[in-house]
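Practice problem: predict the structure.
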Amino acid sequence: MKIKSQRDFAAGLMFLVVGIAFAIGATNYTFGSSAKPGAGYFPLLLGVILAVLGALVLFKALTIESEGGDPIGAIAWKPLLLILGAVVVFGATLPRLGMAVAVPLLIIVSSLGGDEVHWKAVVITSVVLTLGSWLVFVKGLGLTIPVWPVFITG
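Answer:
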């Protein structure tokens, strides 16, 4: 069987493997029921859905001809490293600098991975996502996430 689209094949295989891994990992938790879902309910369903989507993309890659075979291009190292680095910086700074600094820092560093940086949009996005994160996680869910830096709150 010939691979007709390298990109779709690689993406479908990745989705399939990650979906199966999540579904298998979710079996270590209680499943519960639809009325009262357990800890494994959502990850299992999400893993199954991801695996099915991966299988569909794999099927497409093996059956539908694409012009030139959609070869996989070069890895975009700058955006990849900046976005991964932004997530690492977020995880490292959240406990000490709080959400008010860590979320904007995450957005600013990850926005540098793009070809064009529109600072006005970055600032607006930072404010909206910081407020939204505070509303959802601190106010809505009642999680004890530090909002302000430790040197301000004491």
